[in-house]
Amino acid sequence: MADDHNRPAPASAQQPLPTEKRRAGARRRVLKSGAIEFGNEAIACTVRNLSPQGACIEVNSPLWFPDRFTLAVDGQRWPCRIAWKKQKRLGLAFD
After folding, report:
1. What mean pLDDT is predicted for residues 17-29?
2. I need a surface site. Which of 11, 31, 44, 55 has the fewest CB within 10 A?
3. What is the DSSP letter of 51?
4. Is the dihedral of CA 34, 86, 56, 40 positive or negative?
5. What CATH topology corresponds to 19-94?
6. Quick check: 47 and 55 in contact, CB under 8 A?
7. DSSP 7-34
8. Any idea what the Cα angle at residue 44 is, between residues 59 and 82, rounded to 5°?
9. Coil, strand, or helix at residue 52?
10. pLDDT tens track for 54-77
11. CA pair distance 56, 11, nearest whole angstrom
């Protein structure tokens, strides 16, 4: 068939969208101290990027903490859930 080269690649062969294109909004890079708050506990973290929809944080050690908690940064608090984890980095989605 002469038209085979004009067909789109099958879905399994297509590249996944970059993370920036999958997000609902752009995140801005920051480097701020924050805290993971749950119950009467707080664990220090570093906020790497932030948007109205979520954040990327880094913890000093990959300790256990709940899937849902409050992220506190600069006097603001956002209830959130963990969207992904990779070693000491966590992607958060705000509720």
Report:
1. 56
2. 11
3. -
4. negative
5. Thrombin, subunit H (2.40.10)
6. yes
7. SPPPGGGSPPPPHHHHSSS--EEEEEEE
8. 55
9. coil
10. 999 999 876 787 999 999 999 999
11. 29
